[in-house]
User: Fold this.
Amino acid sequence: RSTLSSSSAASDVYKRQNGSPVIHTKPSEIQGALRNYWGEVYALKQINIEKARTLLNYFRRKCGHLFAFEALVMPDEDGIEQAIIMAKDSACGPDGIPYAAYKAVPKLAAKVLHTALQDLQLEHPESDLASFNEQFVWMAPKAAAALDGRVVHRTPNNLRTIFGSNADSKLIASATAHPLVCLLYTSPSPRDRTRS
Assistant:
């Protein structure tokens, strides 16, 4: 049995109850309380381009020596196939296709995902980006509690948010990030450069 207590930060429901937490036991009530608490945090927001540029320029000045971005290229079919082979099993995303489906035919899957990646690089991709980036959201308890053997009882701020993307999205992201991670761990630091 699961329950969720709405905390003071969650919504006006708490305030209407004179300071006593509201206990939700029905799945629909729990979902509603979680939406009230987390909705604004995860809602679609406009990007402030100027602030994004400021942040990226700051990052470039502070960490630019760690990356050789000019050496980066998008993964080819072999790179995507390696990402498929190396992937650990994970929960399915909304499309329900598990990693095992891609692992069963890695060469063919790599060809399909590479085609999708090429499309995603276009200024106006044909791919439906909203469904490509769609995710499940699970809320798991952060730590064990004394009553967990009888009832799982948490407030929204004592839950860990877990996102479940589709495997195709995660495999493309993994194959794309792999060269960047390799550069990060093989680029010399300023201190190493001065020593050589």
In short: Confidence is low (pLDDT under 50) at residues 7-16. The chain has nine helices and five strands.
